[in-house]
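Dear Dr. K.,

Following up on our conversation at the group meeting, I've run the structure prediction for Nuclear pore complex protein from Saccharomyces cerevisiae x Saccharomyces kudriavzevii. I'm pasting the input sequence below exactly as I used it, so you can double-check it against your construct before we proceed with anything downstream. Let me know if the numbering doesn't match what you have in your notebook.
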Amino acid sequence: MQENIQLYQIWIVMVWLKENTHVKERPQNIPTSKWSNSIISGGLKSCDLDYPLRENNNVLDVKDKEEDHLFFKYIYELILAGAVDEALEEAKLADNITICMILCGVQEYLNPNIDVQIASEFDTQQGIKKHSLWRRTVYSLSQQPSLDPYERAIYSYLSSDIPNEEVMQYSDWESDLHLYLNQILGIEIENYLLENNKVDTDELIIPLPSHSLTVHEVLNKVASRHPSESEHPIRVLMASVILDSLPSIIHSSVEMLLDVVKGTETSNDIIDKPYLLRIVTHLAIFLDIINPGSIEEVDKSKLITTYISLLKLHGLYENIPIYAAFLSESDCLEAYSFILSSLEDPQIRQKQIEIMNFLRLPASNILRRTTQRVFGETEREYSPFNEISISFDINDIDMHLIHAVEWLIEGKLYVDAVDSIIALSRRFLLNGRVKALKIFIKRNDTEEICKNYELEKIADDISENEKEDQLLKEIIQYERLVRGIEEYEEWQKSINLLNSESNIPTLIEKLQGFSNDTFELIKTFLVDLTSLDLINSTDYEILYEIRALYTPFLIMELHKKLVEAAKLLKIPKFISEALTFTSLVANENDKIYLLFQSSGKLKEYLDLVARTVTLLK
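The predicted structure tokens came back this morning:
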């Protein structure tokens, strides 16, 4: 078979069929002796196993026939499953010497006196030497109509013939395929032995078929016998493997997927039966490994990416990177980043990074693409058409973006992480999503990230430059803004809880601290970064817009809180303190009035000041 690849392939298919053949549970009433009931009833005069074949005047007991039928059927099933040794043991237990002797012919011929290397394993000869003679002897037994149908079927199979119709009528698609392939194998092996003069002519006592069917003819024959079974998708795949036509079947499977995507079909087998997608995907991967280029790269990619989505649907996250490893790098980046972009559970995310690194996937590029993907997908959600207002809530899209940036932090890509933190902060602040930025900073140690950022630059021999220094300063500015917003929220809570039992001196002290810190933030927030000559025009416009949104907000909110405190705590000087901010807004050094103009808040602020002035006595 090493010289004949086709026969070798048939043998492999037969081994596979045997291993997947289900054998029913051993019957309880298998006989332990031959013809015992017939001897007791007087229908048989001898205990000789062959006596019924030699004498026509005997009467076999019905129970003996039933037990024999049960025994032969079980032996036949064992042989089809490749369990010849087990069948031999059953024959010994049943005291069926005939079957024992016949099954010895299946064993490979080994003689410990000649094959000395196996002398320690066997004391006596194994198998038979004249196999062709044995085959014909067994074949002649299969033609005896007086024998039990399953006994004849055993002999037919062993002689590489097709069993009688009484047995074949209960056969299924797999069994038929097995039987016909067994016939091909037996005929072709004997033909080879004859051609090479390895068979004595005195063994050819009975003529046997010397022409075998082709595998294609066998499959057609099996299909004609089992038309409905042959249409099952798995059997179609089995046939395509046997006929070496898998690439076309795989392409057809991809077309079926595309038909559903395009809306041409609402459903089909490949979509409705996930196990089929799994089988086809595995076949595509395996075939591409053993025969590179035999599967179209686009077909393999579509199957794997679809199967990866199926794994995600069923929560089988740890399997996803394994399949992603079989994609080209570009396809891997797209498919895997799509999956990662939706993962939020910290343990699942950590496990994904571990498996990526273990499989040596391009983890850095995958994580970068994941973050990039989410920024791109959510961009339209952060393109407001109306006036921007500062909001103190957070939505799912904000969290989705936060999780995307955290992939870079979890993957220890600190240079990329810093760039993404800047992009995230700007996007949130430009859209008034200050609470979202607060959540991000609370979840992540930005100070530690910045330290690791600098260490990574040193390790990668990245030279220091002013631009990178500005990035860290910008992050610090955003942290200060978040702390200022937190103080604002804390003060609001304190006012809301104000009652007759409140500690007024403590409240006044807290208000003074809030006022001083906010005033300092107003005077410094992004001031240096918007005055640097090195900053490019795009960055300047973005930072100026952020400053124009939050500086007026901080001034007006601090003003309102001081006036409110003056009323609630009955301390008029807080009103005067609120009005002192007008000089800060109007002075030409800071030019904060330009920020009010830019944000459209100048009139609102002037109205606020005017109302406050009326409160002075």
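Two things stood out to me. The chain has three domains: 5-226, 233-371, 490-617. The first helix runs from residue 5 to 19.

Best regards,
J.T.
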